[in-house]
Amino acid sequence: MPGLGSLASGLQSVSSTKRGEIYLIRCDDKGAIDKEPGGARKFQYFPASISDSKAVTYQSREVPGGSLPVYQWTSSGERSISFTVYFTTDIDHMAASPDPLAASINLRTGALDAQAASENTLKVFDNAAGKTTDRLKAAGALERNPFIPGALVWLRQFMLPRYDTASSKMTGVPITFAPRKLWLVIPNSGIGGYGGEGGWSGVGQGIFCHMTQCEVTYESFFPSGNIRHANVSLGFAENAQQGTAVKFPQFGMPNGLVAKAYGWYGLTPSRGTK
């Protein structure tokens, strides 16, 4: 007779097919939602798991003769979210593209014209990938076959600064802009409220955050060199500062979640309990 463990392992999870989606929405330099085209993206697949951690910091104070130290709370520390996303495509967007280096190499000396190579590469990407993307979009198959290099470039922008050509009037040096912040949105999850209420997060089931990790693993390539399968490990930290304003979240009852937790424990509040 099979044991309980073997029976459980043979069952198919009812949540194996996820209809939910995760969105990343780019913010402008002031922290507001960027309304420019291309400012929001949804992932091709729902992550297999999501890690949500919250730190808290206590300072230990030793008491002479005491059997335990006294702990002084100093801060509630960082809240971090992490998960791995996957990108796959069955269509090679660059299948019909020429080699961008071919027109940039001096056949007599073998030297490479770096500027020409860069310009040719951009042309190849614009022509080949753009035309394939248009065909897939017309066929309704683009979501199943994204252009993965484009997706990776979009994600990595949140790890990189920008340098303005204008100079600061005070220092005379180019102005540097920090990487843009994000709204991480997981609809119907309530994840925006788990870090407390009163901060910037929680609006539209989203977390106001900045990206702390974007590690890419290239699993396979097409013969053209185009990426066929890539995994991206992403990390985010919830942010309390939007522009020059700071809002620290605190304990509360966001959306009645704390009140409804009694049902999870199976307890009935006693009389007079609020």
Write the layout of secondary structure elements.
Blueprint: H1 4-9, E1 23-26, E2 40-42, E3 50-54, E4 57-61, E5 70-75, E6 79-88, H2 114-139, H3 148-156, E7 162-167, E8 174-177, E9 182-185, E10 206-221, E11 227-238, E12 241-242, E13 245-246, H4 257-265
Antiparallel strand pairs: 1-2, 1-9, 3-6, 4-5, 6-11, 7-8, 9-10, 10-11, 12-13
Summed up, the domain count is 2
CATH architecture of the largest domain: Beta Barrel
Proportion in β-strands: 25-35%
- Envelope shape: globular
Structural classification: alpha+beta
Q: Low-confidence parts, pLDDT < 50 over ≥5 residues?
A: 4-16
* Percent range of helical residues: 10-25%
Distance between the termini: 51 Å
Largest sheet: 7 strands, antiparallel
> Using only CA atoms, what is the Rg?
25 Å
Number of strands: 13
The pLDDT mean sits at 81
CATH C-level class of the largest domain? Mainly Beta
| CATH-defined fold name of the largest domain | Elongation Factor Tu (Ef-tu), domain 3
What is the subunit organization of this protein?
Answer: single chain
Q: With helices defined by DSSP (H or I, 4 residues minimum), what is the helix count?
A: 4
Main sheet strand line-up: 2-1-9-10-11-6-3
- The secondary-structure element order is HEEEEEEHHEEEEEEEH
